[in-house]
Fold these 2 entries.
Entry 1:
Amino acid sequence: MSSATTSTVIARPPRVPPATGARAVASANAVVRWGEVLGGPPPSRADCEALDALASVRNVAAGQPVFAEGALATTLVVLVCGDVALGLAGPGGAMRTERLEHGPAWLDASSAWLGTAHVLDAIALTPVRVAELALGALQGLLDERPALGRRLLVSLAREVRRLTVHAHELMHKDAPTRLASWLAERCLAEPGAPNRAVVQLAERKSDIASQLGMMPETMSRLMRTLSDQGVIEVEGYTVRVLDLQALRRLARA
Amino acid sequence: MSSATTSTVIARPPRVPPATGARAVASANAVVRWGEVLGGPPPSRADCEALDALASVRNVAAGQPVFAEGALATTLVVLVCGDVALGLAGPGGAMRTERLEHGPAWLDASSAWLGTAHVLDAIALTPVRVAELALGALQGLLDERPALGRRLLVSLAREVRRLTVHAHELMHKDAPTRLASWLAERCLAEPGAPNRAVVQLAERKSDIASQLGMMPETMSRLMRTLSDQGVIEVEGYTVRVLDLQALRRLARA
DNA sequence: CGAACCCTTGATACGCTTCAACAAGAGTGG
DNA sequence: CCACTCTTGTTGAAGCGTATCAAGGGTTCG
């Protein structure tokens, strides 16, 4: 219903928070890191080579679509490197981000199995490298290598759990709770101080708000409230958690 | 965090709308109908027998939990017959239904693959028969029968798509739109009248509201609004759609 | 410098929940 | 059979939470 445009530029790509440094190195690396895509224990070298043989790799410029909602999915899509926003593009070219993937990760591992169209639009935020696995060839590979099929099952199971929790939070948690939960989820524990932590925001705050199902204004106010309460301290894209216990308590309710 | 109670009765099971008739027959049938669980084309007879050999079947009385949030999942859980509510049980024994399965269907096909706990509580609404597939044995079976693994992949892919759409609607659609979308989704087309349809509610309205992420009062008001507009006509658990086109329009926005 | 982008803050509107009361139907026991 | 209870659905009034609209400041980039 919205896949009319072919491959036009979606205006200039949005500004992105400063990279964490390690990512520039990753971008230079051309091979697909299947271990990180599949998750769990590192796959065997033979499996990786078999997948590499199947994968058809292409580059997408920043601001360009990787795939569009409504387009028939014939391949499993992997993001090799770069950042991609998944969501539904409105008529004005505006994108409401529902998920943001970066580094090696699945972009759509499910639509192809159903033989249906993609449910979301995917737009590159940075220059991006994408690998695609044709469904037919992949099925043949899975017959030879059952271990790979199991890895794929686990990947989808992870996705199901993520989405189940997400849907639950959207239904039954209010905006402050969702934000606290989101922050608590990506706290990096500090060795010396068990009640403190740091969260580096790798995306624009408005994108985070979009993923949490709230307006950027609302999120800004909630961040202000949290820092007024002394729970966090915000400085640009760095959030210092001053009272991790309190944050977890807010995330629970 | 909430799996303290062992297997206590959750008070009396809630009242359920009148069955559609065909279901009583289904309950008498003891075998697992794998075709309906897996979806798509009917699986081979050999596959079905292999699954039956693996399945450990048990009965659960109405009102009793099938599994609990927080309990380690070691098996894939299939609902053979009966109705089960999936959601999160509050401290007061009250259940906020997030999904309601009936007839042959998966209850949880993902948690076991992750080796983690169930994310939701499952409580039988009617007398229920459940089949469980131990993960270890199933993996052995999948090595022998790759076709089964593919069927499982497709099942999980279907679940991913369902949840993706659901999360999208919760984020970006308001309550009237979600209700219209829900109704339009389960319209049975009437042969003679292309713009009319009938929806038989198989669940309590409050359960439908819960699945749509709104309060029962809100849903009641919205149903009233729709019938005031002449879009639908409500009589108990029967909803007659008088203007299918209008309903679809309301569901889109 | 101006332009574009992003975040923030304030004022206001509105959707939905909450609380409370009531009607209708189903099951129960005298 | 009727009185009684329990459950569900409906309706009303009030309040909270979040979206919306509008404006301003900080930063980056051409």
Entry 2:
Amino acid sequence: MEYPFEKIEKKWQKIWNDKKIFNAKDNTDKKNYYVLSMFPYPSGALHMGHVSNYSIADAISRYKMMQGYNVMQPMGYDSFGMPAENFAIQHNSHPRITTDNNIAIMRKQFDMMGFGIDWEREVSTCHSDYYRWGQWFFKKMYEKGLAYKKTSFQNWCDDCQTVLANEQVEDGKCWRCSSVVRQKELEQWFFKITDYAEELLDFSGVIDWPERVKTMQTNWIGKSFGTEIWFKLENSKELIKVFTTRPDTIFGCTFMALPPEHPLVTNWLKEESENSKMHQFCDKVMNEDTITRTSEDTTKEGIFTGRFAINPVNGEKVQIWITNYVLMDYGTGAVMAVPAHDQRDFEFAKKYDIPMKIVIQNMEENLVLEEMQKAYTEPGFLVNSGKFDGMESENSMKSISEWMAKNSMGKETVTYRLRDWGVSRQRYWGNPIPIIYCEDCGTVLVPDEDLPIKLPENVELGKTTQNPLLSVDDWVNVKCPNCGKPARRETDTMDTFVDSSWYYARYADPKNDKMPFSKEFADNWLPVDQYIGGIEHAVMHLMYARFFHKFMRDLGMVNSNEPFARLLTQGMVTKDGAKMSKSKGNVVDPQYIIDRYGADTVRVFMLFASPPDKDSEWSDEGVKGAFRFLNRVWRLFDENLDLIKENNETTSRSKAETTEGNSHEFTRKENLAAKEREGTQSKNTVTLSPESSLGKGSGSDLSAEIKKLRYSTHFTIKKVLNDIEERMHFNTAIAAVMEHLNNVYSIKNVDKLNDTEKAIFVESCVAIPHLMYVFAPHLSEELWKMIGKENLLHEAGLPEFNEKYLVQDEITYVIQIMGKVRGKINVSVDATDDEIKKLALEVENVKKLLEGKEIKKMIIVPKKLVSIVAK
RNA sequence: GCGAAAGUGGCGGAGUUGGUAGACGCGCUGGCCUUAGAAGCCAGUGAGAGAAAUCUCGUAGGGGUUCGAGUCCCCUCUUUCGCACCA
């Protein structure tokens, strides 16, 4: 018979909602704890990744509630974005309609899962009461000089018809639709995240983040120390700045490499005829897609400009080449090429027969130019380098940079790989950028009183490949806020990552219509205590949010340096070893599983499958296993209900007394006090002679079996609390409860137990729903009620264990001979080392194996083993 | 190429400081119950040998440290992830 999960789950979801137990309070004596799951994009029904994410978050939330915290677990929707717009185009609908539909479906499923979410704080980024503050933040960025517009080559996705930030290009392809990204010259809005590059490298403000994520962000920001060197253009005053991390090789520079996008090249091209070789080469390179352009395998090509630069350190003329292997947007966008000591320059110089010069000599093996097959990039000592000859290359860098700085040839500098965040998107379904262009006044910010700029709803989508906003005339054409003359709105919308960069703070004060949020409430809740989400956000969302948080701090809106104190990156749910996806046809629909086995089963399975940060493989059989386990728990209580109720009455009555007149407003202190009283009482009733029962075999009226059960109860409580608190390993915590349940079931003759033993048996049963609350809250709550408990489980406090019952009177020692297990002995706890040794040597098998051998050494590891070394 | 993490039965995974490898679950095998099935219950389940006691082998492969290594050190291989013409 299956347990009636459907009835139970509906019942408790209603009770929890009616009692509003998940509504976080803004003012309370309790300590706050903020648990946040990744902002979901409302794609429709929940998928397994969501279910996994929220099951983890809910387990943590409920654990913290039991611990007495005032917990906030909010939820909302990251509801702007291209997929919604594309979906609406395909279905000849409007994204507002499809998005709201999807949200309704998701909301229903959230409720069916029984997640403890504070729905009074729900937000949705496509609602103007949220996105107006995104516009407000844009204005602040602009006012602080952190939002600016520039023309440059941008990552362009033809399929999405929009620009992508560097973080959104994966392997040269669009992160959303995987089509190949190409470069397109456009005027775009940027946020100056590079101003915060240095601070973003500093993770000292977080409490617990995975190293992996920190490393990924650090690599992404890519700080490198080097030298900027200033070359003069021959017969001109113009300077060409280059960046190098190897100033020690400057004397070996024989040519200079520029990308076709370099401003100097652009000027030179103007002097050339349209069909000149230089034009042809530049056009060819610039039209290549990002993958080919930036791949290491691409053949290095270039064209000589006929121009020369002057190496400032020795006055030598170096050829200037336009090449396909230099990136415009790293360093200064120009490279000094040292073919003898850089592999790329080496290949290029060989191909085009450009001179080389050795300036670093190998200590062991003298380098000869004619014999070199590849560049020498190892350390060595300097040659052909004027007054620096003979210095060790690594030591020379500092001296050379300083000398150049003194003589105005360059300066020490730091370069970051991180580039400014391009936030313009040429799409409709996003947050309008609050800018108006006036012919007279130029770029004008939309005044605060005109915010929010609402997205026009009457648009025709999918008619052209252009941004649909361009065709909404009465929206685009406005009066200049400054001079009142006709002007035009900016039609770019903001990247949706802007919306999700501050949503966690909005939850602290979601209904504020004067500010994005008040400082008081933000400081109440921030930083987020525990954030749970996928690793895929490591360098996008998680870095943008850190940037935004620091910006908000600088505006005085928050007083913390980091948005998320602890981060748990949950693993993917895979099926047949691969990520679930529609195209692979391996998607498992959570709804079906909930209908068939219930929400508790889904949660228990998700948490039991593997540690939360690892990928977990979906298994239909595994789900049945989780279901079987919950049924076994149910049956245990069903079969022993009278016994448990009867033995539980005293404790629940005493608990009721202690909390009289205050039955729903539990506080941590009262809770603990009640717990303690209950504890002492049960200590008296449970063991009539607890102390003597620990002694060797006598005076106790408890069977060994029951003592083992009591040990199991207390051990399991200790283990579960530890696994959750210290490691968040829910899988082993659940395994421990399963094991305990097996132990409880091993007591066969419950009727024949004496009263004390019955009390111990009942204690062992009651611990199960108490511990299972965080994993299977519905069933646990039902059992708790069934046995006569009057409070709800989150009010019950964490279960407590008594160390006294973890002390065993006998300990099993393993006997090893030369490291191999040869026997076991049971020894009383207070046996001396000599007694243990003696017992160990009496074991038959040990005697046999030691025959004719000399014992060299005996090692005793307390409470574990005896190791015998013999020859 | 650089950086990081990982590699344990048929499968998912246990194995906090070196101390009984394989907890727990799935699957499988046999049995009970049942008209039958489902569900449930009991027993077994790393490989090999043996009637059994027990023994040998076993944590990607090879070496080392140690009374004792999945765990520590060195080398090799494989997988996953991130970065990748970054000067």
